[in-house]
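User: Last request for today: this protein with S-adenosylmethionine, please.
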Amino acid sequence: MHSLADTETIPLTDREFAEFQRLIYDLAGIHMTDAKKALISGRLMKRLRHYALRSFSAYLAIVTDSANVEERQTMVNLLTTNETYFFREPKHFDWLRERLIKRSRAERFRLWSAACSSGQEVYSLAMVIADEIGNAPWEIYASDISEKMLTKAVSASYDIEQAEQIPEAYLKRFCLRGIRGAAGSFCIQPELLQHIHFYRINLVEMLPEDFGKFDVIFLRNVMIYFDRDTRRRVTESLLNFLKPEGNLVIGHAESLLGITDRLQAVRPTIYMKKNETV
Ligand SMILES: C[S@@+](CC[C@H](N)C(=O)[O-])C[C@H]1O[C@@H](n2cnc3c(N)ncnc32)[C@H](O)[C@@H]1O
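Assistant: Here's the final one, the structure of the complex with S-adenosylmethionine:
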């Protein structure tokens, strides 16, 4: 066996590509079209190098071996698209401010960011909530399928360039500039972190029964990777976690048209759960 040079690539055959398409669909509900062949071979090539393998079939044998749970997670980490940033789609945060003013003050305000990637969405939400409701009780559950992204999210530390995405007043109040070894980065204030709980959750599997009900669920920019059937299943199962009249928020490029009749649109991409009589 000899190791592969960093630049050496190995062709991915159509049959192998079809196997990876099926595997990532079964594991994460992600529908990879034929246009994603280069993406799959590019991203998985580093695993072939890691194991010094001469074919993608050899990697398929490893990743489909039921004992290799960790390698399957590594593959999922590599094949998910994790792009995100602070205060992405600002209208959703403006809406949340209004929603918080109208919330029920008798209860803890609960929000779930269900595909949180590396955490920028979660901390943006936390800044808005902390600013609006101060000392009243609130919590955010944050989850993603990618362990790698969750590790980044939990670290709550980001390159200083990303600070530009955060409104000035929030930056001053909720972020700390790194010094010495952490120069060039900033982190989120511990006062926010104590309200946030991170979990690894695959949305296409059974969701945890003990999560309770939420006022708002953010499910943004993940359903674009799902086919219609998976979108329907994921939406239905998440709806069971919404309080009556709770809200589901999806990404601006996404649509719930024809997916469920249990929601009514409040604004584009913002929905409210209809009252259900049993
Ligand atoms: C493009 S990011 C969106 C992040 C953030 N919500 C936003 O809008 O900026 C999509 C995230 O969905 C996650 N994801 C993909 N399939 C998933 C699944 N089956 N269950 C949970 N998360 C999933 C990916 O790991 C990725 O972090």
